[in-house]
Write a structure and sequence with these properties.
Elements lengths: L1 E5 L3 H11 L6 E6 L2 H11 L3 E5 L7 H11 L4 E6 L6 H8 L3 E4 L4 H12 L7 H12 L31 H11 L4 H8 L3 H15 L4 H14 L1
Parallel strand pairs: 1-2, 1-3, 3-4, 4-5
């Protein structure tokens, strides 16, 4: 699995290379210091996954992701950010990024994200997911800290809207917990389900709602319940 590392800080690039190169069948094929260089190196090296910093001088990670998507590059973009308050994250999702991780994510999370991205699956640090959902649900809010974006509490009373057609009540229950920023393991614990069962429900929701990642699923759930 070929990976390109993109970050304007040399030490960060070196740390990422040290973290992923040679681990679990991953090879780092190059390093880029900005978005323009990332686009050029992706064309030259054909990586499977690009680990992309979102905030860089010149061409930032969002614009670089947008250019890669526009050129039809096959590389999947995993956005790495130190700024959980950065509203560029939602733009990166729209530009075509498949995963979002904080730079302090543990090495196993980064490695898992690389493998998931190569197969077209998204991965999200819980705080990043909460931030993205908040931005999507409330587009006029700006620069809200992740710690201020707590998972939504269940409604204390009243009927919840019915799920969309073809979605089962259990699937929608899982979807609502995804929209609260819970991981599969946390959803399983809350609903007394195995993690594999939760993954199956999430996959079915992706198919039925025509979404490709957990943020899009969360936004769809929030929009549906708000309209209902």
């Amino acid at each position: 699995m070929r990976v390109l590392v993109v970050d304007d800080e040399r030490l960060m690039r070196a740390g990422l290379r040290l973290m992923v190169d040679g681990a679990a069948g991953i090879t780092v094929v190059g390093e880029a210091a900005d978005g323009a260089e990332a686009v050029a190196m992706t064309a030259a090296l054909a990586p499977d996954v690009v680990l992309m910093d979102v905030r860089m001088p010149g061409v930032d990670g969002v614009e670089a992701t947008r250019r890669l998507t526009a050129t039809g590059a096959g590389a999947r973009v995993v956005v790495l950010t130190a700024f959980a308050t950065d509203d560029l994250l939602l733009e990166a999702l729209r530009a075509g990024a498949v995963s979002f991780l904080l730079k302090d994510a543990p090495p196993e999370a980064v490695l898992a994200a690389v493998h998931d991205a190569a197969q077209g699956r998204g991965s999200f640090s819980p705080g990043v997911l909460a931030r993205l959902v908040a931005l999507a649900a409330e587009p006029d809010r700006r620069r809200v800290a992740v710690e201020d974006v707590a998972p939504s509490a269940p409604r204390p009373a009243g009927r919840l809207p019915q799920p969309p057609a073809a979605v089962t009540p259990r699937e929608w229950e899982v979807g609502r917990l995804v929209a609260q920023g819970l991981s599969n393991a946390e959803i399983g614990a809350a609903l007394f389900l195995g993690t594999t069962t939760v993954k199956t429900h999430v996959t079915r929701l992706f198919d039925k709602l025509h979404v490709t990642n957990r943020v899009q699923l969360a936004v769809r759930v929030l929009e549906h319940d708000a309209a209902g």
